[in-house]
Amino acid sequence: MKFNTKTIHGGQKPEATTGAVMPPVFMTSTYEQSSPGVHKGYAYSRGANPTRTALENNLASIENGKHAFAFASGLAAIDCVLRTLKPGDEVIAGDDLYGGTYRMFTRLFEKYGLEFSYVDMNVATNVKEAITGKTKLVWVETPTNPLMKIADIKAISTVVKEVNSAILIAVDNTFATPYLQQPLTLDADIVMHSATKYIGGHSDLVMGALIVKDAKLAEDIHFIQFAAGAIAGPMDSFLALRGVKTLHIRMQRHCENGKKVAEFLSNHDKVEAVYYPGLENHLGHEIAKKQMKDFGGMVSFKLKDTSKKAALTFLENTKVFTLAESLGGVESLVSHPVTMTHASIPEKERIKIGITDSLIRLSVGIEDEEDLLADLEQALSL
Ligand SMILES: *Cc1c(COP(=O)(O)O)cnc(C)c1O
Question: What pTM, to 2 d.p., does this model score?
């Protein structure tokens, strides 16, 4: 099956007793056993729940993986990956990570003895140079949040595996979604999603996911998920599965609108810089063109007026773009990374990588393009 068909049918079959096309929301914690230990594959819902299974099979299908796991949040999914490591192990990560990922690395896992180094992954050889004898995991985000930096997944996998084929490559695919890129086909080992974003797509749930091909890795992840317990519930699993079924058509419009917004801002005299991988002057444009089907709906930009006041005036006055955290829903959102998503990154670090007061991030939704551009124009004119 091709991608669009898989979003709807991948890993799905009608429900066995009634033929229901959508899986029921199995609101159950436990399952009858005919004899101790003898059951139909479900014993307790921390281990597995049929609604969650239906979603997981679908996610495995659209990411070209074999095994998927749905978690209580994106961060719970990342937490699970890090728990496969042990004290003294080292992780190489990108230097422009989602703020919550950075917070987890620095404020939780450093305490438990994991070591982290951060490199600019726009250049694959930077990753190679950071490898030591203790490196066990490379954590890649592409495009990054909020600067939309691009990492070449295939090139990174190649250089890393040349040095040590046991080092795992994990890709946070939240911004791109499997519609735009499928890291497992680019030799990554683990795909992670904040399904809260485009996978769910309707800003009505918080969820995470991991998808892998390797059976042993799947076994380790399932054990940690079962033993630590950060599972997705059945109602959220149902909503996420419903969301996935329109992922491809939502993404098509997100990409169209994202491009229009990026072009509009590029030509606006109050705008200093626009960060969108679809723009030819974007640092990662060539890699993005090769690696992604299209360029997505996330657009960041800097105002020429570098005062915080100018940014706040814009942020407080958009009308179609709602000022809110999060991204990837059908509605357009605007956010201020410095005070919102990236507040947990120390000021010196932020400024070093370019997250300044004048940086604004847009999650461009699937509304009419004319309304989105008119809204940006009026807010910029204030
Ligand atoms: C939101 C987000 C996360 C964290 O996911 P939650 O579902 O909020 O826990 C991780 N990575 C990226 C890129 C995100 O946007």
Answer: 0.97
